[in-house]
Amino acid sequence: MITQPILFSSLLKNHPFIEDFFGRKNITILLSGYFEKFKAKCPTGSFKDYITGLTLFFRKNKELVVVSAGNVARAFFYKASVLKRPLTIVLPEYALENLKIPVKPSKTVTIYAVKGEYNDAIDFSKELVKRNPERYEHEGGLNNDWRIKGLYRLFRRLPSFDIYFQAVSGGVGPLSIYKTAKYLNRKPPKLYLSQNLPYAPVLSAIKGENPPPPELAEKILAKVLSNARTNIELLSNLIKETHGKIYGITNDELLKAKTAFESFLEEEIDFSAGVTLASVLKAIENSDISPSEKILIHITGGGYEKIKRYPPSQEQIIYI
Question: Which domains does the chain have, with CATH numbers?
Answer without folding.
Answer: 2-43+152-303 (3.40.50.1100), 47-144+307-319 (3.40.50.1100)
